[in-house]
Design goal:
It is built from one helix and eight strands. It has one helix spanning 82-106; strands spanning 3-7, 14-19, 22-32, 37-43, 50-51, 54-63, 66-74, 77-78.
Length: 107
């Protein structure tokens, strides 16, 4: 992402992300520290060729020093084939995870 800002805190907060040449607003719909899950809904219109986009992320301990991050998205309607949308989203996910790794290495 080129930049991010946050309005509010907890469920209902909205994160504005500038990336992929546009702006997307994500509303937090679930934040469960007990299960290490969070979910969000993209507010239409989005920069993606899709509407009704929701996503979920979860963490699962693999060992004392390893954690698995699972990230998934779905949409109510696509205006391009799913494989073409995946080609847009997957690099963004990879860059986001790489940024998270860099941030964790600095701590």
């Amino acid at each position: 992402a080129e930049s991010c800002s946050l309005e509010g805190f907890g469920v209902g907060a909205v994160r504005t992300v500038r990336a992929l040449g546009g702006v997307t607003r994500e509303k937090l719909t679930l934040c469960d520290p007990g299960t290490y899950r969070l979910a969000y809904a993209l507010q239409d219109p989005t920069i993606l060729p899709a509407t009704g986009v929701v996503g979920e992320m979860s963490l699962r301990a693999l060992s004392e020093d390893k954690t698995e991050l699972t990230r998934a998205s779905k949409a109510e309607q696509l205006s391009i084939p799913a494989k073409d949308l995946a080609a847009i989203i997957e690099p963004f996910y990879r860059d986001s995870i790489a940024g998270l790794k860099r941030a964790l290495q600095r701590t």
